[in-house]
Design brief:
heterotrimer; A mainly alpha; B mainly alpha; C mainly alpha; A: mainly alpha; Helix Hairpins; B: mainly alpha; two-stranded antiparallel sheet; elongated
Chain lengths: ~100, ~675, ~170
């Protein structure tokens, strides 16, 4: 039997993988992709509960999440492009202007 | 022309000469300077002669003429504890009476001769103009002294002659000995002046005026009204105070010590100031104040005794001196002693008479010695002279006359005046046989040392240094002519005092009578002596002089002079006499060195304490500055640095958090989330 | 039975692809694997009876966002980046943290395990309408305001993206 519990675990796993990606990788693009992974994990969670509780709210929320993720991806990539014009690198460690 | 009204010009001519020579004399030729200076004195002399001549035309009782130039001081009422006694009013006024007539004639006449002599004697000096400027200043001061009609003008002249004495003694200021002698003269004079000032102040307080005539009147009135008595303490005090001043100026014991040292000055200065004029100021002052002294017989005794002792003491030193001028200096002190002896026994006229004759022959002797020194090229030691009479005959001749005069040779001036004094010492009411004896001894000693001087210098074998011996020549006319004139004066000046016992009129004494009018004080019975007694006394004094001459003749003329012989003669007494009875050394120990010590100690105080305080405050300031700089550097700045460092240290670990890496920030965020989840899971029950 | 297999298949696709996303050296490979992950997630949605969401997921995420990613990678990807280190220096702490994270979440889930057990759904509350209709109805009635706001958000994002990446002419510099 597939219980909700399985979906939640899956979601937790995907989320954690996304966190590892954000914290570990040096390439900007991969970091952004990891963020997308985290968003997807959240979506799975929402849909799972929506299915379990037989309410459509979860799915509506998930639609909004997707919307926001899309917008954020667009803007984030714009920032990446703008950043690249300055420094010509995809290595996030070299963007350290905020260093003390 | 009314000369009597012009007597105020008499001091003025030399004053103008002083101003001209003093200001522009350096740029004038020497002849001009001499003419201006001597000419001024000549004018004063002619004016004095004219004025005295006109005075003589007056009746004896009216022979007193006062010319007031202006009211000098008017300081208001003078009050003592006994009530107002008068006005402090002093005029700048001149008094011509018999006493001042004698003085001005002596001062200007002999002064003129000495000015002429100086033009020759000082011819090679650089400070020629300075010498004559000072000489004229001296004439001005001396004439103010003797012509002034009050004690204050006399005091001004007194101080002025003291100043000129200092300036002229120290004329050769390059020599330390000259400077020292000038200082000594001035300081010792000052001691005398202290006494004189006290005397003058007491006169002002007692009588309310300083005018000679007014004071004399008041004394006379006091005696006649019975308010003032003989031997009143005030008279004795004033008399003694005034005598202290006279002792300083006229070189009596104990203030005579400056006069021998004053021989450091040029010889004309010694002649004019220290023989003829300045030193006689004391005699003049006492004579002027005769009304005071008449009221104080005890003071007069003091004067007579001091005068007599001084005469003897100085003569004893003069017996063995080698410097020709020193002998004459001690002779001057001795003769001044004679004059005070006369004043002290009440013979005021005799004292003034001797003043006049002494002026002639002492000036002559000094100028003559100057001529000798000039011929010997500034050699003054008689031990290096001898047999000069053929080489400088005129000098010898005039000096012979001078020596005869001072020894009291009958027929010359000194005989009459000295004889008068000795007679009065014996016979006067205040006189005493001991005083006469003292005077007689002095007469003998005077004859002895004066002829010793003559024989050592002009007779015997020549001990002159070979090199100097070739240049000995007679002095120029400018020097010889005054010598001759003075020699003539030394002979004839005495005749105006031709005494009664020889049949003369004793004109001099009569002339001075109005000045020395005796006060109406009760006396004891007068002792009457006959003319024979007087003649006998005169014979005794001549005998004494002859004994002195003979001793000198045998010792110094017959046998040539040897130093060892002289020393042996006096035995143990010789070093004492030669060293002036060690009086100078005594004064040094008692006064001079004490004053120097005081000065030194005060200097030490200043250097150590005062300067120490200053240095200490400087040190203190530096130390406190160092301290506050330390405080500022270590404490204040340290505090600031500490705060900075503290913040820096504390912030270091915190700073590390700002790495600038986004992923670090993300990690921290996740960690925060973990904490929250952990709290939710475990924190809540 | 079928549900289980489907679930595990899609789950495996998703998880494995996700792991490859974060561990690939090549960025383009990461993008490809991301696509695979997204497809897997879409499959998960299907098993959860959310057909509309699955479709939206594929169209928007894969067809939009992923393509965008690939475009940008194409534009600015530097050759050099391929040969550098891929993982930064904090990876140890990050792994530990993530481990703790999943541990905490798992533990929380296990603790609340019983709450997930509910009586099986007998009848679907949906009725005869399809999933799309359901979602659409909800969007336009109950959640109209968030819907409009989301549209504005998208507008802002467009404008922002355009502005950020616009080439600056010399006059504007």
């Amino acid at each position: 039997m597939v219980t909700t519990f399985h979906f939640l675990l899956l979601s937790a796993a995907l989320f954690t993988i996304g966190v590892i990606g954000v914290l570990t990788r040096r390439n900007i693009m991969v970091i952004l992709m990891s963020i997308e992974l985290m968003m997807n994990a959240v979506n799975i969670n929402l849909i799972a509960f929506s299915d379990r509780l037989q309410q459509v709210t979860g799915q509506v929320f998930a639609i909004f999440v997707i919307t926001v993720a899309a917008a954020e991806a667009a803007v984030g990539l714009g920032i990446v492009i703008a950043m690249f014009k300055n420094k010509e690198t995809m290595n996030i460690n070299e963007i350290d202007l905020m260093k003390w | 022309m009314n000369f009597l009204d012009l007597i105020w010009l008499i001091p003025l001519f030399p004053a103008i000469g002083f101003v001209i020579n003093g200001l522009i004399g350096k740029r004038l030729p020497k002849s001009a300077v001499g003419v201006i200076a001597a000419g001024a004195v000549l004018l004063s002399f002619l004016l004095s002669a004219g004025a005295v001549y006109q005075l003589l035309q007056l009746e004896p009782e009216h022979r007193s003429h006062t010319v007031t130039l202006y009211e000098w001081i008017n300081a208001g009422a003078l009050r003592t504890t006994e009530g107002p006694i008068g006005q402090f009013k002093v005029d700048w006024a001149f008094l011509l009476d018999p006493l001042s007539s004698i003085m001005i004639l002596v001062v200007t006449g002999i002064g003129f001769l000495i000015h002429v002599y100086s033009t020759g004697y000082m011819h090679e000096e650089d400070g020629f103009y300075r010498f004559f400027a000072y000489l004229n200043l001296f004439m001005f001061s001396m004439l103010t002294l003797v012509l002034g009609n009050n004690y204050l003008m006399m005091f001004i002249g007194w101080e002025g002659v003291g100043l000129c004495s200092y300036l002229l003694i120290g004329y050769y200021f390059h020599k330390k000995s000259a400077g020292d002698a000038a200082k000594k003269a001035f300081v010792v004079n000052r001691v005398g002046d202290w006494g004189l000032s006290i005397g003058i102040m007491l006169i002002l307080l007692t009588f309310g005026s300083l005018d000679f005539k007014v004071v004399g009147e008041k004394v006379r009135e006091g005696v006649m009204s019975g308010a003032l008595h003989v031997s009143d303490p005030i008279f004795i005090t004033i008399a003694l105070a005034l005598f202290v001043g006279a002792a300083g100026k006229s070189a009596q014991i104990p203030l005579y010590v400056w006069l021998p040292d004053a021989m450091e000055g040029p010889t004309p200065v010694s002649a004019l100031i220290h023989a003829a004029t300045m030193v006689t100021a004391g005699v003049y002052m006492v004579s002027r104040s005769n009304f005071i002294y008449q009221m104080a017989p005890q003071a007069m005794t003091v004067v007579a005794v001091v005068g007599g002792l001084t005469a003897f003491f100085a003569a004893s030193i003069g017996l063995v001196q080698y410097d020709i001028k020193r002998v004459l200096a001690y002779s001057t002190v001795s003769q001044l002693g004679y004059m005070f002896l006369a004043l002290g026994v009440g013979a005021f006229a005799a004292g003034v008479f001797h003043l006049m004759t002494h002026a002639f022959f002492k000036a002559l002797l000094f100028l003559g010695s100057g001529s000798v020194i000039h011929a010997m090229h500034h050699e003054q030691d008689m031990r290096k002279m001898g047999a000069l009479r053929k080489k400088i005959p005129w000098t010898f001749g005039t000096m012979l006359i001078g020596t005869l005069a001072i020894a009291g040779t009958p027929g010359l001036a000194g005989f009459f005046s000295k004889d008068e004094i000795l007679w009065k010492a014996f016979s006067s009411r205040q006189g005493h046989i001991l005083l006469w004896f003292l005077g007689a001894c002095v007469a003998g000693m005077t004859a002895f040392y004066m002829f010793r001087l003559l024989f050592m210098t002009f007779f015997g074998e020549s001990r002159v240094d070979h090199h100097a011996g070739h240049h000995i020549h007679e002095s120029p006319n400018s020097m010889v002519v005054p010598l001759v004139i003075l020699a003539i004066g030394s002979v004839v000046a005495g005749y105006i005092g031709f005494p009664a016992w020889l049949g003369g009129s004793n004109a001099f004494e009569h002339f001075l009578e109005p000045v020395f009018e005796p006060l109406p004080i009760p006396h004891g019975p007068e002792l009457e002596y006959s003319h024979l007694a007087e003649a006998g006394m005169a014979a005794v004094s001549v005998l004494v002089a002859v004994i002195g001459f003979s001793l000198a003749y045998f010792k110094y003329s017959k046998r040539s002079w040897e130093e060892q012989r002289e020393v042996r003669q006096y035995g143990a007494l010789f070093p004492v006499l030669l060293n002036k009875w060690y009086i100078d050394e005594l004064y040094d120990a008692l006064f001079v060195n004490r004053a120097k010590d005081a000065g030194r100690n005060l200097w030490k105080f200043d250097a150590k304490v005062v300067d120490g305080v200053v240095n200490g405050s400087a040190w203190g300031t530096v130390e406190s500055a160092t301290g506050s700089s330390w405080w500022d550097r270590w404490i204040v700045d340290g505090l600031v640095r500490f705060i900075g460092g503290f913040i820096k240290t504390v912030s270091w670990p915190v700073r590390l958090i700002q790495t600038g890496y986004v992923q670090n920030y993300a990690l921290v965020m996740i960690l925060g989330v973990l904490v929250f989840i952990g709290y939710v899971l475990w924190g809540t029950p | 039975m079928l549900e289980l297999i489907l679930f595990y298949t899609f789950a495996a696709i998703a998880v494995v692809s996700a792991i490859f996303v974060i561990t690939s050296h090549n960025v383009v490979h990461s993008a490809a694997f991301l696509g695979a992950t997204l497809f897997g997630v879409a499959g998960i949605f299907l098993t959860l009876h959310a057909e509309f969401l699955a479709g939206v997921q594929v169209i928007v995420y894969v067809g939009g966002v992923l393509v965008l990613f690939v475009f940008v990678i194409m534009l600015i990807s530097v050759e050099r980046a391929e040969h550098e280190r891929q993982f930064n220096r904090q990876w140890t702490i990050a792994l530990i943290t993530s481990a703790i994270l999943i541990g905490e979440i798992a533990w929380g889930l296990f603790r609340g395990k019983d709450t997930f057990v509910l009586p099986p759904v007998v009848q679907r509350a949906t009725g005869p309408v399809g999933n799309s209709e359901q979602v659409g109805t909800a969007l336009y009635t109950s959640y109209l305001l968030p819907f409009e706001i989301a549209s504005i958000l998208l507008l802002v994002a467009i404008v922002g993206a355009v502005v950020l990446s616009k080439r600056r002419t010399p006059a504007e510099e």
